[in-house]
Amino acid sequence: MKIYRDLDEIKEPFTNACVTIGNFDGVHLGHQLLFGEVAQRAYRNSGTSVAVTFDPHPLQVLRNDGIKLISTCDQKTELIEHAGIDVLVIIPFSQKFAGISATHFVDKILCETIGVKELVVGYDYAFGKGRAGNIEFLQKQGTEKGFSVTVVEAHYEKDMLVSSTKVRELVTQGRMADARTLLGRYYQIRGEVQLGQQRGGKEIGFPTANLNMDKEDLIPKMGVYVCQVICDGKCYGGVLNIGVNPTFNEKRLVAETHIFDFKRDIYGKPIKVNLLRFLRSEQKFAGIEELSAQIAKDVSEAKAILLEQESELILSCEERFNQ
Predict the structure, then answer these.
(1) 310 has pLDDT over 80
(2) Which one has a higher pLDDT value, 182 or 249?
(3) Residue 31 to residues 80, 190, 197, 289: CA-CA distances in angstroms?
(4) Is residue 263 over pLDDT 90?
(5) For position 202, what pLDDT does the model report?
(6) Please, are residues 271 and 190 in contact by the beta-carbon 8 Å criterion?
(7) CA–CA separation, 188 vs 297, rounded Å?
């Protein structure tokens, strides 16, 4: 997949461009339907499948409270490539760009720069200043300027509307199985392993790989999860605690993962952690002995769950190493 991070990098319009536009946060099953439609139409017309997105997410710029993202821009890029798109255009979003009219966006960006011949959008898509670029506007523009507009209708899984908003809700509630249903994969956090208090191995008996979590991150419900850890192309089971370590009266939010059958030093290395199932809420214990005993129970329960889902998890890891 060819990636353009600025419109100025595009020197000429793409051949028979079939285009979709969106924020695509999380690249859930609804987004994947859009990409599938774009890829099929481009293939039929010997054209180029193009996805147009924005970085940062427009609501991070336009809303004072921002938005909690399901995926980083890098992760989103990986997932879009996996969906079979030929070209990804990542437009830098700013207050100035937000002031561009919908007509200017169509004329200068979609038609002149990208060369749109077919446009595929979701049922609720709107863009441009004041969100004036709605479906009706796009259809009228297409008729006037020679491109077709296909609208992909709302998609439901298990009576749940597949949307980024719904995925965020499920993640913050710790409903990881439902989040997976809408995403088509496990919800994942990622980052470089940080040096922590080093109590896990020496004092508690369960060493952990720690990831810092920022206030801008989409924070899952605090507590303990069964997880899958991907490190250096290999997959491991584990238990993850997201919280503030109330037993030790700490306040910094961290994600601490005890990785099963793993003894390597991975400080500074990137890892990916798939959240499979919520086990229990974070709680304050009377001391290290009581905490250690509970972690042992968590580990035992997690291993039983992982064994029960072994074949499915092996397939999941093989398919998602790079996502």
Answers:
(1) no
(2) 182
(3) 9, 21, 40, 47
(4) no
(5) 54
(6) yes
(7) 24
Judge whether 182 and 160 are in contact, CB under 8 Å: yes
Token pair 């139409």 in the structure block, residue? 41
For 91, other C-beta atoms within 10 Å of its C-beta total 18
Cis peptide before 56 (omega within 30 of 0): yes
* Residue 319: per-residue pLDDT: 54
User: pLDDT value at position 322?
Assistant: 44
To the nearest whole number, what is the mean pLDDT of the chain? Answer: 91
**CB neighbour list of residue 150: distance below 8 Å, 6 or more residues apart:** 37, 41, 118, 119, 120, 121
Could you report how far apart the first and last alpha carbons of the chain are, in Å?
A: 15
Query: How many Cβ atoms sit within 10 Å of the Cβ of residue 100?
Result: 15
Label residue 268 exposed, middle or buried (CB < 10 Å: 0-12, 13-18, 19+): exposed
In our burial notation (b when 16+ CB lie closer than 10 A, e otherwise), range 150-184 reads eebeebebeeeebbbebbbebbeebbbebbbbbbb
- CB 242, CB 222: distance < 8 Å: yes
Distance from the Cα of residue 300 to its chain's centroid: 29
**C-alpha–C-alpha distance, residues 194 and 244, integer Å:** 15
